[in-house]
Amino acid sequence: MEGFGEVLKMYRKTEIINDSKAPPAEGFGEADMIINVGPQHPATHGVLHLVITLNGETIKNVEPHLGYIHRSIEKMCESLSYRQFIYVTSRMDYLSAHINNHACALCVEQGLQVEIPPRAQVIRVLMDELTRIASHELWLGAMAMDLGAFTPFFHAFRERESINDIMEETCGARLTMNYMVPGGVMHDLHPSFQQRVKDFMQLYKSKVHEYDEMLTGNIIFQNRMKNVGVLSAEDAISYGCTGPTARGSGVSCDVRKLYPYEIYNTLEFDEVLETGGDSFSRYMVRVREMQQSIRIIEQLIDNIPEGDFQTKTKAVLKLPKGEFYSRVETARGELGVYIVSEGATTPYRIKFRSPGFSNLSVLNHIAKGSKLGDLVAMMGTLDLVIPDIDR
Amino acid sequence: MTNEELKIKLAEILPTATIEEAAEIGPGWITVNVEPIEWLAFAQQLRKEEALHFNFLFCLTCIDWKTHLTMVYHLRSTIFHHNIVVKAKLDRDKPAIETVSHIWRTAEFHEREVYEMFGVDFLNHPDLRLLILPDGWEGKNPMRKDFEDPVNMIRL
Amino acid sequence: MWSFSNIANSIHEWLSNNFNPTWTIIIEMVIAGVAVISLFALLGLVLVIMERKVSAWMQIRLGPNRVGPKGMFQSLADTLKLLVKEGLTPGGADKFLFNLAPFIAMIVAMLLMAPIAFAKDFQLWDLNIGVLFVSAVSSIMVISILMAGWASNNKYSLMGAMRSGAQIVSYELSAGLSILAVVVMTGSLQVSEIIESQRNGWWIFKGHLPMLIAFVTFIIAVTAETNRAPFDLAEAESELTAGFHTEYSGMKFALFFLAEYVNVFIVCAIGATLFLGGWMPFHIGKWEGFNHVMDYIPSSIWFFGKTFFLIFLIMWFRWTFPRLRIDQLLNLEWKYLLPISMINLLIVTAMAILGWHF
Fold first, then answer.
1. Which of the four, A101, A236, A304, B54, has the lowest number of CB atoms within 10 Å?
2. CB–CB of B13/B3 below 8 Å?
3. For residue C226, what are the domain limits?
4. What does the alpha-carbon distance between residue A285 and residue A274 come to, in Å, rounded to a whole number?
5. C335 near A CB under 8 A
6. Do the domain assignments include residue A386?
7. Environment class of residue A324 by beta-carbon count within 10 Å: exposed (0-12), middle (13-18) or buried (19+)?
8. How many CB atoms lie within 10 A of CB A343?
9. Does A148 reach chain C within 8 Å, measured CB to CB?
10. Which of A121, A114, A120 is nearest to A318 (CA)?
C-alpha cells in the first residue's frame, strides 16, 4: 500500500509541476472551456476565427480573430489607377460585387463631376437589385444550413442560379462582375436580358411560398430564432450596425431612402423595418427585402430608357485634390468609399467602410450568455462575409 | 440642420476648432479640425448635445501625410441625418489620441484596426491589440507610406 | 408459397438429416452469424443509397447517378474507399478506447438484430423478454458514443458526446413508456406474441387515440435516440464540425456510420413490430375474405414494407426540419413527451383492463 501512495504522490507532484509550467491564460476561469471556431469551420462560411469561452454550453465570451483573408485592398488601391481599383473591390464583398463596384464608380464620378446617362442609371439599379436578391438567397440557404436544415439551401440556389445566368450573359461573369465603370456601365445589356429577368421574377413568385413553408412557418425554426441574439436599437447604432442587422432592431438606415443615389428617389419601395431585434427579425427583414427588390425591378424592367450606357470619359482619370465619400446600400449594409486625392492618377488614400466589419463587432455583445447552438443562428443572421470584413 | 446652422452650433461648443467650408467638389460635409487633446470632450458634446445628436460614427480612419498623421472621424445623426467630418492632426513619431470607444462602441474595432495599420496609440482603449494582423506585427504599421516589405509587396 | 420460413425449415431439415444435433446447432449458428453480418453490411449500403436518393428527391437534384445503374453502387464504392483509407489515431487520444468505441457501436447494432422477426417464423432468437432486451441493449449505444467522444481528446468530440449522453438517456424514458403501452395491451414481452396479438388488426388501429399518441411519441423518441436530425446535436456539423466522430477516419468512421443506419433500421423494425403488426398482413377483424387476400402477400414483404415506410418517415424529418437547441431538446422530453407518455400509459392500462379495444 505504501508503494502505491508513493506513486500517487509522485503523480500529484508531476501534475503540480505541469500546472506551474502552463498557468491558465489571464481572464479565463478554471472551469471555462476555450473552443476555437474556425478558421476552418462549417458555420463560419469562410476563414473567420472565433475564440469562444464556454461554461458548459453557455457562451461567456466571443473574440474574433481576423485577417486570414486580409489582402490589404486599401494599400493595393493606392498604387492602382482610378479605373483599375474598381476591379479589386469586387473581391471584398463577393456576394454583392456589383454594389461594391457601384460605390467606387459613384465616388470617382463625384470627383470627376460627370453625369451618367439615364440608361446607365437604370441598368445600375437593376443590377444592384438583382445582386441583392442573389445575395439574400445565398444567405437564406446558408443560414438554414447552419441551423441544420439542408433542403432550403438547394431551393434558394435554384433561384440564385437563374440570376447568375442573367449576370453571366450580360457581364460575362457570375460572381465578380466588374460591370460598373466610372461614367456608366462597361457595355450594353444583352438583348435577352429583359425576357430573362421577367422569367426569373415569374419563377421567384411561384416558388417564394416554399420558404414560408420550410422556414418561416416552421415551429422549430421559430423557436431557434425568436428571442435569440437580441440587439437593441441603441446598441445597433452605437456598434455602427447597418443594413438588415440594424433594420431588424428598428433602426432606419437604408441609404437608398436616407441619402438616395442614382434614381432611387424616383422609385416606389418601402424600407423594411422590424422591431424585434432578435434573429427572427433580421431573418424577416431580409426575406421581405427580397420582395421589395422584386418590386423595384418590376418598375424598371419595362422602362429602360434608350440612349448611351456610358458617358465619354478620359482614358486616364485624374481626380482633383480633395476628399470624396460615397455610400451605397449593399446586401449587408452601408458601404462607404472614402477617397483622398492629391490630384494624381492614383488615390492617395482610400478607405472602405465595410458593413461586415461593424456588424461583426456586435457579435460578442449579443452572444454572451446564450448557447453554442445560438451562436450559429446569430452568425447566420448577421450575414458575415469574411473577405468583406478583412478587406 | 443645414451646414450653416451646424457651423454656428459647433463654433459655440468648441471655439478653438477651425471649421472648414464644405468643398465644392465632394460630398458637401463641413470639416472640423480639432486638437487631439480637445477631442474627447468635443466628442462627448457632439454625442450628448440635443440639437446635434451625432450618435452614429460611420467611418473612422487615419491618413498618413508623411509629415504628420490625420485621424478622420465621419459622424452622422440618425435623427437629423446631418453629417460632419472631424479631423485631428497627430504627431507622426508618437501618435496618440484619446479613444472614443465608450461613446461609440463601433470605434473599438475601428481603432484597433487603425492602431495596427498606422501605429496610433489610443489612450484608455479597453483592448488595444492586433485585430487583423498576425502576432509579431506589432509596431510595423503596414498602411504607412514608408512601409517596405520586399517579399509581399509588389510595386507597380 | 415462397417465404423465409420455408427456406429456414428446409435448411434445418437437411442439416438434421446429415449431422448430429450438436453440429446442427453449431452450423445453424454460424449460418445465422454470417447472415446477420451480411445483412448488416447490406442494410448499411441500402440505407445510405436510400438516404441519398430521398434527400436528392427533396432537394430537387438527382443524387448519385454515376456508379452502376442509377447510381445504385455508389455506397459500395464509398465503402471500398473507406476500407482502403488510413485509419488515423490522433496522438493525444486514448488509443485503446478510441479504437474500441466503433466496435461497441457495431456490436450493439448487431445484438439488436436478434429478437426481430423478419418474416413469419423467421427469427433468430424469440426470447421471452424480447422487447425489454431491445431497450436494454440499445442503451449501451450511448457508451460507445461517450467513449469515442472522451477518447478522441478533442473538445468538439467531447461536447458532442456529452450532448448525446444527455439526449439518449432522456429519450430512452419516453421510448420505453410508449413500448410499455403495447406491452400492457398484449400482456407479453415476447416479440412473437406481440405480433400474434395483432392478427385481427394492428395496435395502431385497435388501440384508439392513446395508441396513436404512443406511436408518435415512439417515433420522436427513437429519432432522438438514433441521433438523427432534427435531434442530431451529437453531430451538429454546423456547431461541432462532426461531433463525437470528428477524429475518426477510414473504416472506424464507416463503422459508426453503418451502426447509425442499422440502428435506424432496428428502431423502425421495432416500431413496425409493436404498432404496425410486424410481418402480420393487414387484417380487419372478422373480414375473412379480405384477410385471406392480404395473406397472399408474403410476410417478409409486409415487414420490410412497413419498416422502410418508417425509415422514409425518419428521413423525411431529417431533410425538412432545422436542428433543435440542446435546452429545447431536453425541454421537449422532460416537459412534454414524458408527462404525456406517462398519462397515456395510465389510459392504456385502463383500456387494457376494461377491454376497451377491438
1. A304
2. no
3. 88-354
4. 7
5. no
6. no
7. buried
8. 10
9. yes
10. A114
DSSP result, A33-97: EEEEE-SS-TTTSSS-EEEEEEETTEEEEEEEE--TT---HHHHHTTS-TTTHHHHHTTTSGGGH
pLDDT tens-digit map of A112-135:
888 888 888 898 898 899 999 999
Return the residue in B25, B30, B69, B145 with the most chain A beta carbons within 10 A, the one to mutate for interface testing. Answer: B25
Is the pLDDT at A203 greater than 70? The verdict is: yes
Tens-place pLDDT, residues A138-185: 998 888 888 888 888 888 888 888 889 888 888 888 888 888 888 888
- Backbone φ and ψ for A301, nearest 5 degrees, come out as -65, -30
Domain that holds residue A95: 73-374
Domain count for chain B: 1
* pLDDT tens track for A218-249: 888 888 888 888 888 888 888 888 889 988 88
Which residues share a beta bridge with A37? Answer: A50
- How many whole angstroms separate alpha carbon C181 and alpha carbon C198? 14
Name the more confident of C309 and B135: C309
Structure confidence at residue A17 as a pLDDT band (50, 70, 90):
very low
Check whether the bond before C21 is cis (ω within 30° of 0): no
% of chain C exceeding 90 in pLDDT: 3
What is the CATH classification number for the domain harbouring B61? 3.30.460.80
Q: Which CATH number goes with the domain that contains A253?
A: 1.10.645.10
Give the model's pLDDT for residue C2: 56
DSSP of C6-70: HHHHHHHHHHHHHS-HHHHHHHHHHHHHHHHHHHHHHHHHHHHHHHHHHHHHHTTS----SSSGG
Best CA proximity match to A67, nearest among C295, B129, C32: B129
- Contacts C238 to A, Cβ<8 Å: 42-43, 145-148, 376
Mark residue C67 as left, alpha or beta (left: phi above 0; alpha: psi -120 to 50; beta: remaining). Answer: beta
Q: What range does the domain containing B48 cover?
A: 3-93
User: Omega of the bond prior to B150 within 30 degrees of 0, cis?
Assistant: no
Beta bridge partners of A58: A55, A371
Q: Which three cell numbers stand for residue A92?
A: 471584398
* Residue C67, domain member (yes or no): no
DSSP letter, residue A371 = B
Place of cell 465570451: A61
Backbone angles phi, psi at A357, to 5 degrees: -60, -45
Chain B partners of A253 at a C-beta cutoff of 8 Å? 78
Q: Residue A124 has which C-alpha cell?
A: 445600375
What chains are in contact with B, requiring at least 3 Cβ pairs below 8 Å?
A
Domain contains B26: yes
Burial C185-214 (b: 16+ CB within 10 A, else e): bbebbbbbebbebbeebbbbbbbeebbebb
Q: What is the pLDDT of residue C343?
A: 92
Query: Per residue in C37-73, pLDDT tens?
Result: 888 888 888 888 888 888 898 888 888 888 888 888 8
How far apart are alpha carbons C298 and C119 in whole angstroms? 8
Cβ contact (<8 Å) for C59 and A150?
yes
Residues with Cβ < 8 Å from B50, sequence gap 6 or more?
none
Structure-block grid coordinates of residue A338: 472614402
Q: Residue C352: what are its φ and ψ, rounded to 5°?
A: -65, -40
Chains B and C: 3 or more CB pairs within 8 Å of each other: no
- Work out the pLDDT band at A2, boundaries 50, 70, 90: very low
C328 and A223 within 8 Å at the Cβ level: the answer is yes
Sign of the dihedral defined by the CA atoms of residues C298, C299, C303, C304, in that order: negative
CA dist A89 and A87 (Å) reads 5
Cβ separation C238–A43 shorter than 8 A: yes
- Residue given cell 460572381 in the structure block: A175
ipTM of the predicted assembly exceeds 0.90: no
